[in-house]
Design brief:
Number of helices: 0
Distance between the termini: 28 Å
Strand order of the largest sheet: 4-1-6-7
Radius of gyration: 21 Å
Helix content: under 10%
Structural class: mainly beta
CATH architecture of the largest domain: Sandwich
Number of strands: 14
CATH superfamily of the largest domain: Macroglobulin (MG2) domain
Number of domains: 2
CATH class of the largest domain: Mainly Beta
Order of helices and strands: EEEEEEEEEEEEEE
Strand content: over 45%
Mean pLDDT: 87
CATH topology of the largest domain: Immunoglobulin-like
Amino acid sequence: MDCILFTFFSDDGIRLWINNELVIDHWIPQPVAESRGTIELEAGKKYDIKLEYFDNCCDAVCDLRWSTDRLPMETVPTSQLFPARESRIPSDQNYDIRVSPNPANSLLNLEIDSRIFDRVTWRIYDAKGREMGNGEGEVINTVNLFEINISKLSPGTYFIKIKGNIMDGQIKFVKH
């Protein structure tokens, strides 16, 4: 975990949330000013970010920067910003199951969009039907993300079977 310092230059107000935690709250009319907030984040992991901003008058200024002990302050690069995960559940179903990336190397993201609450287990099978791994988790009424370490699997094609009180499905993935 790294302590990330977010610095925001704005005219006028700013609120910044990272993973639903309010990091900067400076919601007032003002000339260009600097606002700061810190949060512990894990490198390489994606976090939800929400930014609220308003301009009361004159020239609008809105510049979000970050820094750590090892990283000098810079504007947050667009390469580090990703669109919000949106539900892709078909209208006639209560859930949708996806994996990413596919093909994968060491970590596989199991995404379960859900309109229901369920406790699920998942089992990974190779092409010959042998169980290669398993896990479990709570699924709530939103996009659920489970990171699965597949680094010990040999390259090949696999299936994840998901089973819950309501959910029942499988999806194929490739391990490089």
